[in-house]
Amino acid sequence: MTNRIDKHIIRFILLLLTQVYILNNVLFLNIINPYIYIYFILLLPFNIPTFLRIILGFIMGFSIDLFTGSMAIHASATTFIAYFRPFILSLFAPFDGYEKNTEPTLQYYNLSWWLKYATTTTGIHHFTLFLMEVFHFKNMYFLFLKTILSTMLTVFLMTLLQLFFYKSKSNT
Amino acid sequence: MRTVLKFIIRQHNAIIFLLLETLCIFLTIKNNEYHKNVSFSFFKEITGQVHSAYYFVKKYIGTIEENKLLAEENSRLRTLLTNVLHDSTHHIIDLKNNIQYIPAKVVYATTRTANNYLIIDKGLNDSILPDMGVISPNGIVGIVKDVSDNFSTVLPIININAHISARIKTNSYFGTTVWDGKNSQIIYLADIPYHIKLNKGDTVITSGFSTIFPEGIEIGTIVEFDYNEGNDFYNIKVQLKTDFNKINHVYVIRHLLQKEYKQIEQIIKNDKQN
After folding, report:
1. Is there a contact between B167 and B207 (Cβ–Cβ < 8 Å)?
2. In the structure, how many helices (H) and strands (E) does chain A have?
């Protein structure tokens, strides 16, 4: 159990640093920027208490905000997906539901499930994030375009992480 | 209270979520100049709408109130005006021409006889004396003939014995009015020499050659004129301004310097006799 909490804390720190010092400098084509720190929220255990998940989501986003000076924009988006994660999970739940003692990773579930889960969550997060950034409802087409392109990049990077850390494990 | 607590306990996750989101939005607006401006303009838009609605309603209610006030003021002024015109204590005084207008009401009038006359409800007590002019808001009426304490008889211009000095406004030639005893709307203007040019519609006014009428009170307009061969004067038909069939409110003209005028007139007469 301690091992798992450690894992989450280390993941939190690494994702935060990666996001702040590497990925925030990407800004591909001036609109595409991956935000993989939500990987932390995606990988929180199934059985985590809801209030803790929400607060952890808030802390994740708030930390990004603290480092980048974009106060509370990321926090609102991460809080949002942290709260709605169970609904997204239930959308793509396997026929017999999620098994106990499993994690929402490729280690236990297939790639198709992962892509659906990750894309939906990331899309919602990115849309909320960009909406909070512009803070108005004008020019929605651009917002959708930005969301879709950034989501593709983020999901691609997160899937690479999954494949790198879990696929090899499951093979062994 | 218990139900509220129950609700909070049951929905604690949603409440935490909403509180955190509210905090995020609050922090976003508080810490980012851009978001502050956007939200301010958004709220300004909303508050502006509310403000304009409020002021529209306020203005409308204000209009009702204002209308009421204006109506009250109107009636007050009208009362004042009526008092001025019809109250014997509020005579209009034209200081420039030394004339006092004493309002009076016609209580009796004849228009169908040759010797028409009017009775008005003011007399000696209102300092009305014989030989004062009487006018209506439209034009000339006549001359006070006999006076009692509270009533006076007026010899109107439509009396065959009434002759009032009149002149044509455009060219200042003067003559005397004559009534033929037939139509109460028409009088004739005599003594206008036929060599002068006349137009239909010319206005006939009082000449101001006595203290009875000040100069310029309208008598009527010329409707017809002709002259007979061998006669030096026009035969001018004048439509009266005053409608004697409807006459009601009149003003008696009191010339404040009449006494002085009479004295000087008397001196001339005495000189002539001597």
Report:
1. yes
2. 7, 0
Complex ipTM value = 0.85
Dihedral class, residue B266 (left if φ above 0, else alpha if ψ from -120 to 50, else beta):
alpha
Question: Token digits for B110?
Answer: 């004849």
B194, B234 in Cβ contact below 8 A?
yes
DSSP state of B256: T
A78 touches chain B (CB under 8 A): no
Q: List chain A domain ranges.
A: 2-171
CA distance B121 to B105: 6
Closest CA to A127 of A142, A145, A147: A147
pLDDT digits (tens, 9 = 90+) for A39-97: 999 999 888 889 999 999 999 999 999 888 888 889 999 999 999 999 999 998 888 88
List domains and CATH numbers for chain B: 101-257 (2.40.10.340)
Q: Which candidate from B20, B30, B38 shows the least CB-CB separation from A135?
A: B38
Best interface-test mutation with B: which of A65, A76, A124 has the largest number of B CBs within 10 A? A76
